[in-house]
Amino acid sequence: MRKAEVKRKTKETDIYAELNIDGKGNYDIATGIGFFDHMLSLFAKHGLFDLKVVAKGDLEVDTHHTVEDVGIVLGNAFLKAAGDKKSIKRFSTFYVPMDEALVRVSVDISGRSFLYCDLPLKAERVGNFETENVEEFLRAFAYNFGITLHVELLHGGNSHHIIEATFKALGRALDEALRIDERAEGIPSTKGIL
């Protein structure tokens, strides 16, 4: 099984994560940010990843440091757990509707860090979660995992629905891209490296 454990401690945050890519969607999330916990739970459940995240951050300042640093830790955990990436499918695109919202997420487990994010969010907050931190999380995750990630809102207006569809689609897309293809041999690249 492809598993990882990552710890990261700074003056702003103290984060621990356990990941099993080949899990069943079990999760135990405690970041101190209720809405973010909910999104990470959806991500794990729909990606079928077993995920534990325990984060303590300077929430008296705001949620930015905690959300971004969880993205860093999870990106590192996925990178570590993915191992040599032999025989993975590598690419995936997933669409997820949430009522009026429709979000498309495309991933390439490429070894090249890039984020394209087009998620216009009308609300500044959902609960105590600053919505601008969605992009901060996605950037930290993509850059620390070393993936190309495109996230686009095709239509919708409710910020909660848009963010929820995003995390579900990200989980589904990663599940597909990281799946082992029994027909494939070696690294899925003509370069021989990802």
Assembly state: single chain
The main sheet orders its strands as 1-2-4-3
How many domains would you count in the coordinates?
1
Strand content: 25-35%
Biggest sheet layout: 4 strands, mixed
Q: What do we call the CATH homologous superfamily?
A: Imidazole glycerol phosphate dehydratase, domain 1
- Which outline best applies? globular
Overall mean confidence score, pLDDT? 96
Low-pLDDT segments: none
According to CATH, what is the class? Answer: Alpha Beta
CATH architectural grouping: 2-Layer Sandwich
Distance between the termini: 20 Å
Structural class: alpha+beta
EC number: 4.2.1.19
Keywords: Amino-acid biosynthesis, Cytoplasm, Histidine biosynthesis, Lyase
GO molecular function, one term: imidazoleglycerol-phosphate dehydratase activity
Pfam family, one: IGPD
